[in-house]
Amino acid sequence: MRAKSSFRDWFNSGEPYIWLNAGAVSLSIIMVVGLVALIMVRGLGHFWPSDVAAFDYTDTDGTVVALAGEFVDTESVPRARQAGNDSRIPADLEVIDRSLVRVGNRDYTGFDYHWVLDAAIHNLHYPEDIMAVERYEWGNFYGYLKAVKENGEVVDAAPDWESFQRYIAESEKILGEIHLIEKDLIGAVNYEMERLRLRERGLVLNNEPPGNPAFGEIEARRASLQEEYNGYTGRLTDLYERLNRASFVATLAGGREVELPFAKVVRAYRPNAMSITGKIVFYFEKLWEFVSGDPREANTEGGIFPAIFGTVLMVMIMAVLVTPFGVVAAVYLREYARQGPFTRLVRIAVNNLAGVPSVVYGVFGLGFFVYFLGGTIDELFFVESLPAPTFGTPGIMWASLTMAILTVPVVIVSTEEGLARVPRAIREGSLALGATKAETLWRTVLPMTASAMLTGLILAIARAAGEVAPLMLVGVVKLAPSMPLDGNFPYLHLDRKFMHLGFHIYDVGFQSPNVEAARPLVYATAFLLILIIIFLNLAAIKVRNTLREKYRAAEQN
After folding, report:
1. Coil, strand or helix: which one is 417?
2. In angstroms, how far is CA 443 from the centroid of its own chain?
3. By Cβ atoms counted within 10 A, which residue in 166, 192, 322, 479 is the most buried?
4. Does position 286 have pLDDT exceeding 90, yes or no?
5. What pLDDT does residue 250 have?
6. CATH code of the domain in which 367 resides
7. Are 463 and 535 in a shared domain?
8. DSSP per residue over 89-117, as a string?
9. What is the mean pLDDT of residues 490-497?
């Protein structure tokens, strides 16, 4: 009886609920950490240089083909799922092991990946001289180096690996010069030519006479730019001639010889002959390329720097826009508005805004910001560009404003809660010393509420960085031709479209024609997005904690 009573007392004390809550929190943390670890391993493991296997494979019709590639995944499937009477499978096996092999050479075989039965693999080995070639198009190439050509003639019938790498380095150097001329130099000329065209059209629309000196200045500058443009195109012609001069001959696993231009090669390596140190160096080179490079092959190869840049820039612009609007609204509702039914109704509306589906905000942003506000701006300030829109089309500014509208309820609620925590005596003391209400708010109350403001901003940043649906309507694209920030005046182009990590994940994961090649990049991009959100949040948390410690003494008084 006493034991039953003690159990009832222990249960009524609430301690079981404490343990239950602690267990639930611990389980949630374990699940989150496990999910992040799974994403990290699946994503970052993609950049490790796997060994390339060569083997003979017996096909379903009994023919034997030679294959080479990287073993990516393995699985066990029931015999009935594979083939009930497949002669390649021993009769006593009910469960069949098969492997996914990245065979590459898509331009010659028609596919990148191939499922093979382990029982049908013969003569499996890992030759040290087999090479993996990353290309700008058609994915990876696997084969054996045979010869190097220049202008169609063999110049080295048995090239060593060092000289082969020098050809690749020379080709990469030429491609770098071409990229500099095409994207930066010619891009700057085209940008200025377009500005001259718009300036000239503006003069025409203003009915300026043909004798206006401004027309002469425009023509003189245009002639100078055209001469500069011709010089760049001449250099490009020479560079392309040098670039397409060299090629190499390689042998596929089946013995077929093919010729590949060095201009299409990103890098070539022999993973089977690499030491562990060489593989580690290669791994970090690939990881850096992923973070700092541009995408290629429909976003399934290369890097994601434009998406990183677009995500961070959009979040920063959103933070600059949402903070003052959210703080001003909260200050008005808490400090100035008469507390009554209308104010309570406004608060209910603000709270309900946080539950509106994000795609609704995207539709609102498209209709109000892009079509109405952007179209009005074009008619008032960019009439010379019409009918081509300047701000009347989705861009990073409208995306940032849409995200600001989406997240402003969080900032309002958080700031209001911070204002409510400031003791009334603080306000009364400031007013008693002769300060006005505005001075009290600006110099005393708001600094003490800064930690709450930043808490709302942290939540807003976390949500805005991961949203995709509204951004698809107001500015995000699969591949942006140029980033919103460059060396052309006014340097920050808020009217341009941009790339976003969240949309990049959606596009690569669900819109890519090559699912197997895209899957590791989905994991890697998702992990990088998590890291960026954590970094932005930690920066805001650091500022919040600093302000909280600064004003802790005032709050206690």
Report:
1. helix
2. 40
3. 322
4. yes
5. 95
6. 1.10.3720.10
7. yes
8. S-TT-SEEEEEEEE---HHHHS-SEEEEE
9. 90
Per-residue tokens: 317: 């612009």
Residues 150 and 220 in one domain: yes
Verify that 450 and 348 share a domain, yes or no. Answer: yes
What's the pLDDT score for residue 4? 59
3-state helix, strand, coil in the chain (%, to 5): 60, 15, 25
| pLDDT at residue 439 is higher than 60 | yes
Q: Are residues 136 and 170 in the same domain?
A: no
- Confidence grade of residue 95 (pLDDT, cut at 50, 70, 90): confident
Question: Could you give the CA distance from residue 279 to residue 51 in angstroms, rounded to a whole number?
Answer: 10
Q: 56, 88 in Cβ contact below 8 A?
A: no
pLDDT of residue 7: 66
Q: Are residues 61 and 137 in the same domain?
A: yes
pTM, to two decimals: 0.88
Question: What is the distance between the alpha carbons of residues 483 and 387, in angstroms, rounded to a whole number?
Answer: 23
| pLDDT for 255 beyond 60 | yes
pLDDT confidence of residue 278 = 93
Answer whether residue 288 shows pLDDT above 90.
yes
CA distance linking residue 97 with residue 79, whole number of Å = 9
Spatial distance between the Cα atoms of 555 and 362, rounded to a whole number of angstroms: 40
300 band by pLDDT with thresholds 50, 70 and 90: confident
Quote the tokens at residue 525. Answer: 């991009």
Paired residues of 545 in beta bridges: none
Confidence of residue 221 (pLDDT cuts 50, 70, 90): very high
* Per-residue model confidence (pLDDT) at position 83: 56
- The owner of tokens 């590459």 is 104
Report whether 498 contacts 484 (CB < 8 A). Answer: yes
Number of domains in the chain: 4
Q: Which tokens sit at 373?
A: 């506000």
Phi and psi torsions of 14, nearest 5°: 90, 0
Distance from C-alpha of 13 to C-alpha of 29, rounded to nearest angstrom? 26
pLDDT reported for residue 464: 86
Scored b (16 or more CB within 10 A) or e, 437-464 reads: eeebbeebbbebbbbbbbbbbbbbbbbb
Question: 277: buried, middle or exposed (CB in 10 Å: 19+, 13-18, 0-12)?
Answer: exposed
Phi, psi values for residue 470, rounded to 5°? -65, -30
